[in-house]
Amino acid sequence: MLMTMTPFPQLVNYIGFTLNFFAVMSVASLLYFRTKPGWQKLRVVSFCYPLFPVLFLLVGVWMIIQGIQLKPYISLATVVTVVTGALVYHFRIRPAATRPAPAVETYESR
Fold first, then answer.
1. What is the tally of structural domains in the chain?
2. Is 14 domain-assigned?
3. How far apart are CA 102 and CA 50, in angstroms?
4. For residue range 63-78, what is the model confidence (pLDDT) as tens digits?
């Protein structure tokens, strides 16, 4: 609700910074998981494999650094949002997801 009260240009910068951050993390995870045994290597992903992901990461990290330097408050808001979401997931949602589901009584089991 607070985000709807911010000026539109700042909201666009916030969303762009957040999307760029998650895109960089996604491509970095591609480089990480390709080293794991059993990874299914697709031809589409293997085309110029190390070159394109590394170029994407270089540009993405440069954009993150520029965003931090040019718009530090928007970058800080992004970091606070991501960290808050990670903490909520870690302490509230993840423990509930690891608990076994309660047994549901069906018509056949009666």
1. 1
2. no
3. 46
4. 999 999 999 999 999 9
